Structure prediction request, 426 residues.
Amino acid sequence: LFAALPDNLPQPLALRYHGHQFRAYNPELGDGRGFLFAQMRDEVDGRILDLGTKGSGQTPYSRQGDGRLTLKGGVRELLATSMLEALGVNTSKTFSLIETGENLVRGDEPSPTRSSVLVRLSHSNIRIGTFQRLAFERDTDKIVRLIDHVLMHYFTNLGDLSRASTAERAVAMLAETCRRVAATGAQWMAAGFVHGVLNTDNINITGESFDYGPYRFLPAYDPAFTAAYFDHAGLYAYGRQPETLMWNLTRLAECLLGVAARDELIAALDAFPPAFEAALSDAICRRLNLGPRGVDEDSALVAAVFAFLHDSRVPFERFFFDWYGGALSISRAAQSPEAAHYASASFAPLKEIIAGYAASKPSRLDHPYFAGAAPCTLLIDEVESIWAAIADHDHWKPLADKVQAIAQMAQAFDLNSILAPSTEPG
Prediction:
């Protein structure tokens, strides 16, 4: 039974939107198995906090689906959000996962399979696809209202734009969305994460990462690595994620052509590339706990890191585990299974660059996480093993152990400070 929170939504809300799915436009989309139940203020940073469900039943937009979430899908999303937050990615949070006791039939996994409802917290429910729907319907008035809603409730860091023209407000919103999406995309790259389904309806206007289906984490650096088994062309491969995000943002800009000039919107889109490069440098420095030295130096560090990972095939997460703290980790890295790679000539240029950096904050190398023999990872075989224990034996300890290991890693890296954009004007 639904009981509304005081001064909140009187009924659960499912939202309608459109979107490009693998770059084919689909006007028949919407929240097919998710409801927004309430909105609150985050006590930490003052942002609007959405409380919603995934898998709680049919909505007006279920399109003949049952509106349910498999337990396996819920377990996978719980793991994804936990791992991404630990690695410094701006992501939705899994509040709870509840098994319902129902059996579901699915075509892409053994059936019948167990059902669940996932409760998640996020900082926006507005997608690029939300704007696409209004543009498709040629509803300019609602586009303007939605722009003002975004600026008033989500982009308060831009200050008071009430006296700006409609075009100026639209351009400001687009530029800020570009910066936020760029930051999240850079965080994915630094985490070795492949979202898998980067359709426009899966891109939040605030940049927050959400909705995890066939995601993967890289075993080793590979730009062509894909997550979705149905992505035969590699459209959403790891190395193509920045390009895809830019393509999606361009679709958002097209929605604003009725309220702003093309040249102004193109100028706003131009915020994406430099924002992405700066965010990637920041994310790599934070992952290695290195204090930034400047645009040129940090760009050289990023290039050297990915060049080494490409040439050496050192496991992605292993590298960041071995070299967290930079030069302070030289002796520890020498004990790594990858020590031969770190002693090779191919590593010398990167080692020299790292030596020029100081730690950005007090070293946490004495944390128990770094005393372990290996980093915490979330590769597909691990996810499948965790699910097999639940599916075959109702054995939940492997899941609990992995969540605990991720929490220990999160404490050691202490990357959560990069998750929330500033809410201060300016």
Summary: DSSP finds 15 helices and nine strands in the chain. The mean pLDDT is 94. The two ends are 44 Å apart (CA to CA). Strands lie at 16-21, 24-30, 34-41, 48-54, 69-70, 93-104, 113-122, 193-194, 216-217.
